[in-house]
Amino acid sequence: MVAVAVLALAPGGSAQLQYGFYKGKCNGTDVEAVVQGIVRAWFWRENPIVAYLLRMQFHECVINGCDGGLLIDGPGTEKTAPPNLSVKGYDVIAAIKTELERRCPGVVSCSDIQILATRDAVALGGGAAYSVRTGRRDRRRSTVSDVKLPAPEYTAAQTTAYYGRLGLSAFDTVLLLGAHTVGATHCSVIKPRLYSYGGRPGATDPGMDPSYAFVFKKYVCPNVPSSDNTIVFLDDQWSALKVDNQYYKNLQLRRGVLPCDQNLYNDGSTRWIVDLLANNSGLFTSLFPQALIKLSEVNVLTGTQGEIRKVCNKFN
Ligand code: HEM
Protein backbone atom coordinates (compact mmCIF):
# COMPACT_ATOMS: atom_id res chain seq x y z
CA MET A 1 0.00 0.00 0.00
CA VAL A 2 2.82 2.36 0.96
CA ALA A 3 4.67 1.49 -2.23
CA VAL A 4 1.58 2.33 -4.30
CA ALA A 5 1.26 5.72 -2.58
CA VAL A 6 4.90 6.50 -3.25
CA LEU A 7 4.58 5.56 -6.90
CA ALA A 8 1.53 7.82 -7.21
CA LEU A 9 3.62 10.87 -6.34
CA ALA A 10 4.45 13.17 -9.25
CA PRO A 11 8.08 14.38 -9.50
CA GLY A 12 7.25 17.58 -7.62
CA GLY A 13 5.57 15.58 -4.86
CA SER A 14 2.19 16.78 -6.13
CA ALA A 15 0.13 13.73 -5.27
CA GLN A 16 -3.14 15.25 -6.35
CA LEU A 17 -2.38 16.14 -9.93
CA GLN A 18 -4.07 13.60 -12.14
CA TYR A 19 -4.82 12.84 -15.75
CA GLY A 20 -8.30 13.99 -16.75
CA PHE A 21 -8.84 15.87 -13.47
CA TYR A 22 -11.68 17.90 -15.02
CA LYS A 23 -13.56 14.91 -16.46
CA GLY A 24 -17.18 15.10 -15.30
CA LYS A 25 -16.62 18.40 -13.46
CA CYS A 26 -17.72 20.96 -16.08
CA ASN A 27 -21.41 20.42 -16.83
CA GLY A 28 -20.74 17.93 -19.60
CA THR A 29 -18.03 20.04 -21.21
CA ASP A 30 -14.77 18.41 -22.21
CA VAL A 31 -12.43 21.02 -20.71
CA GLU A 32 -9.32 19.89 -22.57
CA ALA A 33 -11.20 19.96 -25.89
CA VAL A 34 -12.31 23.56 -25.26
CA VAL A 35 -8.72 24.62 -24.54
CA GLN A 36 -7.47 22.81 -27.62
CA GLY A 37 -10.16 24.34 -29.86
CA ILE A 38 -9.33 27.90 -28.78
CA VAL A 39 -5.56 27.39 -29.05
CA ARG A 40 -5.99 25.89 -32.51
CA ALA A 41 -8.13 28.80 -33.72
CA TRP A 42 -5.60 31.25 -32.26
CA PHE A 43 -2.69 29.42 -33.85
CA TRP A 44 -4.12 29.79 -37.35
CA ARG A 45 -4.34 33.55 -36.83
CA GLU A 46 -1.12 34.00 -34.90
CA ASN A 47 1.50 31.25 -35.41
CA PRO A 48 3.98 32.67 -32.84
CA ILE A 49 1.52 31.73 -30.11
CA VAL A 50 3.64 28.57 -29.72
CA ALA A 51 6.63 30.71 -28.69
CA TYR A 52 4.52 33.00 -26.52
CA LEU A 53 3.04 30.14 -24.52
CA LEU A 54 6.30 28.23 -24.14
CA ARG A 55 8.04 31.29 -22.77
CA MET A 56 5.06 31.98 -20.53
CA GLN A 57 5.20 28.45 -19.07
CA PHE A 58 8.88 28.95 -18.29
CA HIS A 59 8.48 32.36 -16.65
CA GLU A 60 5.40 31.12 -14.79
CA CYS A 61 6.62 27.80 -13.46
CA VAL A 62 10.11 28.72 -12.27
CA ILE A 63 8.77 31.38 -9.89
CA ASN A 64 6.89 29.69 -7.03
CA GLY A 65 5.68 26.94 -9.38
CA CYS A 66 2.97 26.98 -12.06
CA ASP A 67 0.47 28.93 -10.02
CA GLY A 68 -0.90 31.66 -12.29
CA GLY A 69 1.21 34.27 -10.46
CA LEU A 70 2.52 35.71 -13.72
CA LEU A 71 -1.01 36.46 -14.92
CA ILE A 72 -1.93 38.93 -12.17
CA ASP A 73 -2.19 42.60 -13.14
CA GLY A 74 -1.26 45.50 -10.91
CA PRO A 75 1.68 47.34 -9.45
CA GLY A 76 4.41 45.17 -7.99
CA THR A 77 3.18 41.86 -9.47
CA GLU A 78 5.38 39.26 -11.24
CA LYS A 79 4.20 40.65 -14.57
CA THR A 80 5.99 43.95 -13.89
CA ALA A 81 9.47 42.37 -13.59
CA PRO A 82 11.63 43.56 -16.52
CA PRO A 83 12.07 40.14 -18.23
CA ASN A 84 8.30 39.60 -18.01
CA LEU A 85 7.43 42.83 -19.82
CA SER A 86 7.99 41.10 -23.16
CA VAL A 87 6.05 37.93 -22.28
CA LYS A 88 3.04 37.54 -24.57
CA GLY A 89 0.03 35.25 -24.82
CA TYR A 90 -2.00 36.59 -21.92
CA ASP A 91 -4.92 37.21 -24.30
CA VAL A 92 -5.31 33.56 -25.31
CA ILE A 93 -5.29 32.46 -21.65
CA ALA A 94 -7.96 35.08 -20.85
CA ALA A 95 -10.09 33.95 -23.81
CA ILE A 96 -9.95 30.31 -22.70
CA LYS A 97 -10.79 31.28 -19.14
CA THR A 98 -13.82 33.32 -20.27
CA GLU A 99 -15.17 30.39 -22.26
CA LEU A 100 -14.63 27.90 -19.44
CA GLU A 101 -16.18 30.22 -16.84
CA ARG A 102 -19.23 30.49 -19.10
CA ARG A 103 -19.53 26.71 -19.18
CA CYS A 104 -18.62 25.90 -15.56
CA PRO A 105 -17.82 28.83 -13.27
CA GLY A 106 -15.09 28.42 -10.68
CA VAL A 107 -13.87 25.01 -11.81
CA VAL A 108 -10.80 25.28 -14.06
CA SER A 109 -7.68 27.02 -12.72
CA CYS A 110 -5.70 29.56 -14.70
CA SER A 111 -2.54 27.60 -13.97
CA ASP A 112 -3.98 24.46 -15.60
CA ILE A 113 -5.15 26.51 -18.57
CA GLN A 114 -1.56 27.71 -19.10
CA ILE A 115 -0.18 24.17 -19.06
CA LEU A 116 -2.90 22.72 -21.30
CA ALA A 117 -2.66 25.59 -23.77
CA THR A 118 1.12 25.29 -24.04
CA ARG A 119 0.80 21.54 -24.57
CA ASP A 120 -1.65 22.10 -27.44
CA ALA A 121 0.48 24.84 -28.98
CA VAL A 122 3.59 22.63 -28.96
CA ALA A 123 1.74 19.94 -30.93
CA LEU A 124 0.43 22.53 -33.40
CA GLY A 125 3.99 23.80 -33.87
CA GLY A 126 5.14 20.37 -35.00
CA GLY A 127 6.05 18.90 -31.63
CA ALA A 128 4.61 15.75 -30.13
CA ALA A 129 1.14 15.49 -28.61
CA TYR A 130 1.42 14.63 -24.91
CA SER A 131 -0.76 14.13 -21.86
CA VAL A 132 -0.47 16.35 -18.80
CA ARG A 133 -1.79 15.94 -15.29
CA THR A 134 -4.14 18.64 -14.07
CA GLY A 135 -5.62 19.79 -10.78
CA ARG A 136 -3.37 22.81 -10.17
CA ARG A 137 -4.78 25.70 -8.12
CA ASP A 138 -4.01 29.41 -8.44
CA ARG A 139 -1.85 31.08 -5.83
CA ARG A 140 -2.95 34.21 -4.00
CA ARG A 141 0.49 35.73 -4.37
CA SER A 142 2.26 37.53 -7.19
CA THR A 143 5.23 39.64 -6.14
CA VAL A 144 7.84 41.21 -8.34
CA SER A 145 10.60 40.59 -5.81
CA ASP A 146 10.05 36.81 -6.19
CA VAL A 147 11.04 36.97 -9.86
CA LYS A 148 14.57 35.66 -10.26
CA LEU A 149 15.02 34.47 -13.82
CA PRO A 150 18.25 33.26 -15.42
CA ALA A 151 20.20 35.83 -17.44
CA PRO A 152 20.94 35.45 -21.18
CA GLU A 153 24.66 35.51 -20.37
CA TYR A 154 24.51 32.49 -18.06
CA THR A 155 27.19 29.85 -18.46
CA ALA A 156 26.07 26.23 -18.84
CA ALA A 157 27.01 25.65 -15.19
CA GLN A 158 24.86 28.56 -14.05
CA THR A 159 21.95 27.46 -16.21
CA THR A 160 22.03 23.83 -15.07
CA ALA A 161 22.41 24.96 -11.43
CA TYR A 162 19.35 27.19 -11.80
CA TYR A 163 17.18 24.33 -13.06
CA GLY A 164 18.85 21.92 -10.68
CA ARG A 165 17.41 23.92 -7.80
CA LEU A 166 13.98 23.12 -9.21
CA GLY A 167 14.77 19.40 -9.31
CA LEU A 168 15.54 19.29 -13.02
CA SER A 169 18.59 17.51 -14.40
CA ALA A 170 21.19 18.85 -16.85
CA PHE A 171 19.48 16.76 -19.53
CA ASP A 172 16.11 18.35 -18.71
CA THR A 173 17.78 21.76 -18.85
CA VAL A 174 19.21 21.23 -22.32
CA LEU A 175 15.83 19.94 -23.47
CA LEU A 176 14.02 22.96 -22.01
CA LEU A 177 16.30 25.47 -23.69
CA GLY A 178 15.33 23.68 -26.90
CA ALA A 179 12.20 25.86 -26.59
CA HIS A 180 14.40 28.43 -28.34
CA THR A 181 13.63 26.42 -31.46
CA VAL A 182 10.74 28.89 -31.78
CA GLY A 183 10.38 32.61 -31.29
CA ALA A 184 12.56 35.64 -31.26
CA THR A 185 14.66 38.08 -29.31
CA HIS A 186 15.89 41.60 -30.02
CA CYS A 187 19.23 43.03 -31.06
CA SER A 188 19.58 44.79 -27.70
CA VAL A 189 19.93 41.37 -26.05
CA ILE A 190 22.74 40.12 -28.29
CA LYS A 191 24.63 43.34 -28.96
CA PRO A 192 26.95 42.79 -25.99
CA ARG A 193 28.08 39.54 -27.72
CA LEU A 194 28.80 41.45 -30.89
CA TYR A 195 30.34 44.71 -29.70
CA SER A 196 31.51 44.49 -26.10
CA TYR A 197 32.12 40.85 -25.27
CA GLY A 198 33.42 40.35 -21.75
CA GLY A 199 33.05 44.09 -21.15
CA ARG A 200 35.80 44.88 -23.71
CA PRO A 201 34.70 47.61 -26.16
CA GLY A 202 34.86 46.36 -29.75
CA ALA A 203 35.23 42.67 -28.80
CA THR A 204 33.02 40.00 -30.39
CA ASP A 205 32.32 36.66 -28.72
CA PRO A 206 35.01 34.32 -30.13
CA GLY A 207 32.61 31.43 -29.55
CA MET A 208 30.39 32.73 -32.35
CA ASP A 209 30.89 31.52 -35.92
CA PRO A 210 32.79 34.50 -37.47
CA SER A 211 30.71 34.58 -40.66
CA TYR A 212 27.55 34.52 -38.60
CA ALA A 213 28.87 37.37 -36.43
CA PHE A 214 29.78 39.30 -39.58
CA VAL A 215 26.23 39.05 -40.97
CA PHE A 216 24.75 40.09 -37.64
CA LYS A 217 27.04 43.10 -37.33
CA LYS A 218 26.67 44.27 -40.91
CA TYR A 219 23.02 43.56 -41.67
CA VAL A 220 20.93 42.59 -38.65
CA CYS A 221 22.13 44.43 -35.56
CA PRO A 222 24.44 47.27 -36.66
CA ASN A 223 26.06 49.10 -33.78
CA VAL A 224 23.57 51.95 -33.66
CA PRO A 225 20.87 52.48 -31.03
CA SER A 226 18.11 52.35 -33.65
CA SER A 227 18.72 48.61 -34.17
CA ASP A 228 17.98 47.74 -30.53
CA ASN A 229 14.41 46.68 -31.18
CA THR A 230 15.10 44.73 -34.36
CA ILE A 231 13.73 41.20 -34.12
CA VAL A 232 16.22 38.31 -34.23
CA PHE A 233 14.89 34.77 -34.56
CA LEU A 234 16.27 32.37 -31.97
CA ASP A 235 16.40 29.60 -34.59
CA ASP A 236 16.93 29.84 -38.36
CA GLN A 237 14.18 31.98 -39.82
CA TRP A 238 12.68 29.11 -41.83
CA SER A 239 12.47 27.05 -38.65
CA ALA A 240 11.50 29.80 -36.19
CA LEU A 241 7.90 28.64 -35.92
CA LYS A 242 8.69 24.93 -35.85
CA VAL A 243 9.26 22.79 -32.79
CA ASP A 244 12.21 20.79 -34.13
CA ASN A 245 15.88 20.07 -33.35
CA GLN A 246 17.36 22.69 -35.69
CA TYR A 247 18.25 24.79 -32.62
CA TYR A 248 20.77 22.12 -31.51
CA LYS A 249 22.26 21.85 -35.00
CA ASN A 250 22.85 25.60 -34.90
CA LEU A 251 24.67 25.28 -31.59
CA GLN A 252 27.01 22.72 -33.20
CA LEU A 253 27.75 25.32 -35.90
CA ARG A 254 28.37 27.97 -33.20
CA ARG A 255 25.28 29.79 -34.40
CA GLY A 256 23.37 29.94 -31.15
CA VAL A 257 21.77 33.35 -30.70
CA LEU A 258 21.76 33.88 -26.93
CA PRO A 259 25.01 33.32 -25.04
CA CYS A 260 23.21 30.89 -22.69
CA ASP A 261 22.26 28.80 -25.74
CA GLN A 262 25.76 28.65 -27.21
CA ASN A 263 27.28 28.03 -23.79
CA LEU A 264 25.45 24.68 -23.67
CA TYR A 265 27.67 23.57 -26.53
CA ASN A 266 30.85 25.22 -25.29
CA ASP A 267 30.75 23.32 -22.01
CA GLY A 268 31.77 19.66 -22.10
CA SER A 269 29.25 18.70 -19.43
CA THR A 270 26.30 19.62 -21.67
CA ARG A 271 27.85 19.40 -25.15
CA TRP A 272 27.19 15.66 -25.42
CA ILE A 273 23.49 16.28 -24.79
CA VAL A 274 23.38 18.93 -27.53
CA ASP A 275 25.14 16.49 -29.89
CA LEU A 276 22.71 13.71 -29.05
CA LEU A 277 19.67 15.91 -29.69
CA ALA A 278 21.15 17.47 -32.82
CA ASN A 279 22.06 14.14 -34.37
CA ASN A 280 18.77 12.33 -33.68
CA SER A 281 15.87 14.30 -35.09
CA GLY A 282 13.10 12.29 -33.40
CA LEU A 283 14.74 12.34 -29.99
CA PHE A 284 14.06 15.99 -29.18
CA THR A 285 10.46 15.66 -30.33
CA SER A 286 9.86 12.69 -28.07
CA LEU A 287 11.77 13.98 -25.00
CA PHE A 288 10.90 17.69 -25.01
CA PRO A 289 7.41 16.99 -23.56
CA GLN A 290 8.95 15.10 -20.64
CA ALA A 291 10.97 18.17 -19.65
CA LEU A 292 7.96 20.46 -20.06
CA ILE A 293 5.90 18.10 -17.90
CA LYS A 294 8.55 18.12 -15.16
CA LEU A 295 8.63 21.92 -15.28
CA SER A 296 4.83 22.00 -15.12
CA GLU A 297 4.76 19.99 -11.90
CA VAL A 298 7.32 21.96 -9.88
CA ASN A 299 5.83 23.31 -6.62
CA VAL A 300 2.19 23.28 -7.71
CA LEU A 301 -0.74 23.98 -5.42
CA THR A 302 -3.43 21.28 -5.36
CA GLY A 303 -6.43 20.13 -3.34
CA THR A 304 -7.80 22.98 -1.25
CA GLN A 305 -4.69 25.18 -1.50
CA GLY A 306 -4.97 28.56 -3.25
CA GLU A 307 -8.09 29.27 -5.26
CA ILE A 308 -9.74 28.91 -8.64
CA ARG A 309 -9.75 32.46 -9.96
CA LYS A 310 -12.80 33.94 -11.65
CA VAL A 311 -10.57 35.84 -14.06
CA CYS A 312 -6.90 35.11 -14.56
CA ASN A 313 -5.53 38.61 -14.09
CA LYS A 314 -7.05 39.22 -10.62
CA PHE A 315 -7.23 37.36 -7.33
CA ASN A 316 -10.81 36.55 -6.29
C1 HEM B 1 18.83 30.06 -19.12
C2 HEM B 1 17.55 30.02 -19.42
C3 HEM B 1 16.90 31.00 -20.36
C4 HEM B 1 17.23 32.29 -20.65
C5 HEM B 1 18.37 33.11 -20.10
C6 HEM B 1 16.28 32.76 -21.62
C7 HEM B 1 16.28 34.02 -22.16
C8 HEM B 1 15.46 34.45 -23.16
C9 HEM B 1 15.52 35.76 -23.78
C10 HEM B 1 16.49 36.86 -23.39
C11 HEM B 1 14.57 35.79 -24.73
C12 HEM B 1 14.26 36.97 -25.65
C13 HEM B 1 13.33 37.95 -25.00
C14 HEM B 1 13.17 39.21 -25.81
O1 HEM B 1 14.11 39.66 -26.47
O2 HEM B 1 12.06 39.78 -25.77
C15 HEM B 1 13.91 34.52 -24.74
C16 HEM B 1 12.90 34.18 -25.60
C17 HEM B 1 12.23 32.98 -25.51
N1 HEM B 1 12.39 32.02 -24.55
FE1 HEM B 1 13.92 31.84 -23.27
N2 HEM B 1 15.39 31.77 -21.89
C18 HEM B 1 15.72 30.68 -21.13
C19 HEM B 1 15.05 29.49 -21.08
C20 HEM B 1 13.85 29.25 -21.70
C21 HEM B 1 12.99 28.12 -21.44
C22 HEM B 1 13.26 27.04 -20.39
C23 HEM B 1 11.91 28.25 -22.26
C24 HEM B 1 10.69 27.39 -22.37
C25 HEM B 1 10.60 26.15 -21.95
C26 HEM B 1 12.12 29.44 -23.05
C27 HEM B 1 11.31 29.87 -24.07
C28 HEM B 1 11.52 31.01 -24.82
C29 HEM B 1 10.77 31.32 -26.03
C30 HEM B 1 9.76 30.43 -26.72
C31 HEM B 1 11.20 32.58 -26.46
C32 HEM B 1 10.69 33.38 -27.65
C33 HEM B 1 9.52 34.24 -27.17
C34 HEM B 1 8.85 35.06 -28.27
O3 HEM B 1 9.15 34.90 -29.44
O4 HEM B 1 8.00 35.90 -27.90
N3 HEM B 1 13.28 30.04 -22.67
N4 HEM B 1 14.45 33.72 -23.77
From TrEMBL:
Domain of life per record: Eukaryota
UniProt domain Plant heme peroxidase family profile: residue ranges: 16-316
Keywords: Calcium, Disulfide bond, Heme, Hydrogen peroxide, Iron, Metal-binding, Oxidoreductase, Peroxidase, Secreted, Signal
InterPro entries membership: Haem_peroxidase (IPR002016), Haem_peroxidase_sf (IPR010255), Peroxidase_pln (IPR000823), Peroxidases_AS (IPR019794), Peroxidases_heam-ligand_BS (IPR019793), Secretory_peroxidase (IPR033905)
Cofactor(s), names only, from the UniProt record: Ca(2+); heme b
Molecular function terms, GO-annotated: heme binding; lactoperoxidase activity; metal ion binding
Residues annotated as signal peptide: 1-15
Positions bound to Ca(2+) 2: T181, D236, D244
Transition state stabilizer, annotated site positions: R55
Record-level GO cellular component terms: extracellular region
Reactions catalysed, as given in the entry: 2 a phenolic donor + H2O2 = 2 a phenolic radical donor + 2 H2O
Active site feature: H59
First-level EC class: oxidoreductase
Disulfide-bond pairs as recorded: C26-C104, C61-C66, C110-C312, C187-C221
Binding site for substrate: P150
Pfam families linked to this entry: peroxidase
Binding site for heme b: H180
Residues given in the record as Ca(2+) 1 binding sites: G65, D67, E78
Main location: secreted
Annotated localization: Secreted
Record GO biological process: hydrogen peroxide catabolic process; response to oxidative stress
Cofactor note: Binds 2 calcium ions per subunit. Binds 1 heme b (iron(II)-protoporphyrin IX) group per subunit.
Record-listed E.C. numbers: 1.11.1.7
Annotated family: Belongs to the peroxidase family. Ascorbate peroxidase subfamily.
Name of the protein: Peroxidase
Protein species of origin: Dichanthelium oligosanthes
